[in-house]
Task: structure prediction
Amino acid sequence: MKYPLIVLALIWLCVTSCENPTGGRTIGVSFSENANGQSLDGRLLLLLSTNDEKEPRFQINAGLHTQLVFGMDVEGMQPGQQLIFDETTFGFPYPSLADVPPGEYDVQALLHTYETFNLSTGHTVKLPMDNGEGQQWNRSPGNLYSTPFKITIGDNGVKDVDVVMDQVIPPIEEPQDTEWVKHIKIKSEKLSKFWGRDMYLGAHVLLPKGFEEHPEAKYPLMIFHGHFPEDFGGFRTSPPDSDLKPNYSARFGVEGYNIIQQQEAYDFYKRWNEPDFPRFLIIEIQHPTPYYDDSYAVNSASQGPYGDAITHELVPYIEERFRGIGEGWSRFLYGGSTGGWEALAVQVNYPDEYNGCFAACPDPIDFRAYCLTNIYEDKNAYYYESEHKEREVPAHRDYLGHVQTTTREYNHLELVLGTKSRSGQQWDIWEATYSPQGDDGYPKRLWDKMTGDINPEVANYWKENYDLRYILERDWDKLGERLKGKIHIYCGDMDNYYLNNAVYLMEDFLESTTNPYYGGEVDYGDRAEHCWNGDQENPNHISRLRYNSMYVPKIMERIAESAPKNADLTSWRYQ
Result:
């Protein structure tokens, strides 16, 4: 239901801490000195659940089965200091504790801790530093949390409940090098200068067969973009575990999907070792930021020069250490979803440094189809324009069109998890990447997070700097020859997030270009959902596990037709 303006105003006042309870439902939250003896900044979350299968902190999402969360910003919270969640504290999916149905609930609290950054722009901001988990608030090392216990919320409310956070999420062990996979981390001078502290980039490097036995060989580089990888994924040197209990994938309707994943990873290992398989380096990059599990691999006002840092610091370092060829014709980009957008954006922003991108189910690449919102013409992102009828804009569907979540719901959940684009979630990272920096040092909002009203000035900034279709059309006279044959885009026509709509618009432009013709490929999967990546032969739950091998034939064709005269095409083609 669309809230009246006075209700929206009251809710907005309660996005931050309210220490004077006014209603009949109040819950106090504190942390013990044993958990942390210092004052802390961060986002304090109160979690309620009617499901005993997991801790409440692991049951928060925007889908139909989410449990309850309420949030407030805290600064300088002291050990033993009790803060009060009451009926004015903003929550999701219920905006207020007053709306929570009577019943028995598991209650838990968590403090997502913030650190202070003194940016090179002159701003001081407080943000959650990634601690090796890929910006996951519910399992980030150093965050405080409480052990869940049961409470009863009655018709007359609940009072005198004291939730004490006395647990600390432990550090995460870093992955160890193996014969095949090496792990590297470098300090980025560019990022450290921007953030005002040491900042690092990492990567998991898959070595080709015969790397040690062929010191004369230099290798092409395949860069797999995507969300934060804990280790190199989809590669294992042994068959599936014999004692692995099969699990069911509700998303794909497949029994034993964990076994299928292990089998595919083992099959890739065997393929990687076959005599006819080209010898490549493959890397998965770790580039989490204080806003998200990765940076989107471009330069931005609020996150800094991640594009330059990856292309000009990290990639050359890896190529030097692991004998990469180190030339633009020998580098290729691929990935899906976030990684699909990154692959295309990096190719567009650095047209001569890479020789082809394979962008699967990319995040919106034309902001006239920013999912289901045209940010240039629509006035509101949450509701369709109508004089007499109210209809919310959907945000997630299945392949039959059933809608589980709306744009407003996603964004209101993010607002509970963190103000100022600090939720670590999808819509906020788009703002943190694409928006200009505000006077307070945080990203400017594309739209009012509570109401959905769009800011046209911010939309225009997005257009000029990050709308990939617009940038290609605007600059095709400069980019066309340098990108010819390099752009490949794949998307299911029933993508869960409606990302195919932007791909249609991009295809319209690419197919209309004749000076020069783009010479790449755009393809769609019939009734395929998110993560479809161009495989017309296998179901989505299989093809999404084959990114590291499925584009190799097309890459080899590209190398054959585009490598410069006297390029090394032989040292890395041994058996």
